[in-house]
TrEMBL record:
Topology in membrane: Multi-pass membrane protein
Molecular functions (GO terms): transmembrane transporter activity
Chief localization: membrane
Gene Ontology CC annotation, any one: plasma membrane
Protein name, per record: MFS transporter
Domain Major facilitator superfamily (MFS) profile intervals: 1-413
Length: 419
């Protein structure tokens, strides 16, 4: 790949330049917006690559659905812990200082996944993956905004959001196909993922990013927040994003068990394809609403999540693969729309020097219920059956999505729309 020149006509260096947090006012060449999104995509491919392999590990190691959701939730625990520091560190020290260690942890996670022979190993791998993802959703997404420049912030929000869901979908699809068709599935899947992460390292090293001039003040480890003007946008973003990502987390953690237990399908390709279709819907939904008002996108996110939960109940009670896939598609749309709206609201309201921390705050609000509710559903399913457990989960999450819609409607006059 040929790399662009900076706005002052000097070759792009391979190290950060001591200057303001963002690139020059006009931003880097347009192709760098897409290149900067690649590390986000690569790390999110790792985040869900294990999805179609859980059934294999359950068979070889032996653990319950409740334990499976705990393994999944350890990823979210690592992610939330990472968000307590990664956004602040990124805003103070620069994006590369956070992204490069995150990619290194992703490489270590690949090695642990490839050799895992116990639940403890899976937990360690998921924790490391979560830490890497937490750094990327704060520093990586902010890096896309930085290279875009102030004039292209709406495009940057769209590209960063789509990079996340594209990676989240490609990871399990690729893993499912490789696991079904090649020997040594876990080694093969994570060896390929490690190679992709190495290309992301090269991209970050070449990225035209500048170091922040100000280091900021206050604690380095804290619950991420936003300036006063960003509080309402953050609250509304979480109201839509949290139910959507909780729905997709349920599909990722218990979807293979639903296919194997209720729908009598052990196909790893089908499990991976369902996750891919879910996140393809998330990507397509975001492109479809580029010109829509933010209020409409927020409300559409809640509506998609409510519909997803209704279809999920119908799927588990009828044993229908088609309905389960439709529920996944609607869940993906709900997450994608909520994520895009949240990032767009924060990008418009929060200054660059606080943007990574703001992105971290949005993800803390979203991933916290995404970690807790599927775990509760997993253990509930062990106790009362998968059908009843999924039904209770769906009812609770639909209620939260409806509550989010009420919150958006009540604050509709406070939503700043793009001109």
């Amino acid at each position: 790949m040929a790399f662009a020149r900076s706005s002052v006509s000097a070759p792009i260096p391979t190290r950060s330049i001591p200057a303001p947090a963002a690139t020059a006012g006009a931003g880097a060449p347009r192709r760098w917006i897409w290149a900067a999104a690649w590390p986000v995509t690569a790390v999110f491919m790792l985040s869900n690559a294990a999805t179609p392999l859980y059934v294999l590990w359950q068979h070889s190691i032996g653990f319950s659905k409740g334990t499976l959701t705990v393994v999944f939730a350890c990823y979210i625990a690592g992610l939330l812990a990472s968000l307590l520091v990664s956004g602040i560190a990124s805003d103070r020290l620069g994006r590369k200082v956070v992204l490069l260690p995150a990619l290194a942890l992703g490489l270590v996670a690949c090695a642990v996944f490839a050799t895992a022979e116990s639940v403890a190993a899976l937990i360690v791998a998921r924790l490391l993956t979560g830490i890497a993802v937490g750094a990327v959703v704060s520093a990586g997404m902010a890096a896309v905004t930085d290279v875009a420049g102030p004039a292209r912030r709406p495009l940057a929000a769209l590209v960063a959001s789509c990079a996340m869901v594209v990676g989240a979908g490609l990871g399990p699809l690729l893993a499912g196909v490789l696991a079904q068709t090649l020997p040594g599935p876990t080694v093969t899947v994570f060896a390929l993922e490690a190679a992709l992460l190495l290309t992301a390292v090269v991209t970050v090293l070449r990225m035209p990013l500048r170091r922040p001039q100000e280091r900021g003040q206050g604690r380095w480890v804290r619950i991420p927040g936003v300036p006063a003007e960003g509080r309402v946008p953050l609250l509304l973003g979480i109201a839509a994003f949290a139910p959507g990502i909780t729905a997709t987390s349920f599909v990722l953690s218990l979807g293979p068990s639903l296919l194997a237990g209720l729908l009598h399908s052990s196909s790893r390709i089908l499990a991976g394809a369902m996750a891919f279709v879910m996140f393809t819907a998330a990507t397509g939904a975001q492109f479809a609403v580029q010109r829509a008002k933010r209020r409409q996108v927020l409300l559409a996110s809640g509506a998609a999540t409510v519909l997803a939960m209704a279809v999920l109940v119908a799927a588990v009670r009828s044993g229908s693969v088609v309905l389960l896939v439709l529920a996944a598609v609607l869940a993906g749309a709900g997450q994608g729309l909520g994520q895009l709206a949240g990032l767009s609201l924060l990008s418009a309201a929060v200054p660059t020097e606080r943007l990574a921390e703001a992105n971290a705050a949005l993800n803390v609000g979203g991933y916290l219920p995404a970690g807790l509710l599927p775990v509760a559903a997993g253990y509930l399913s062990d106790a009362i059956g998968l059908t009843t457990g999924a039904t209770v989960f769906a009812a609770v999450l639909a209620g939260l999505a409806l509550l989010g819609g009420v919150l958006v409607t009540a604050n509709r006059r406070r939503i700043v729309e793009p001109r």
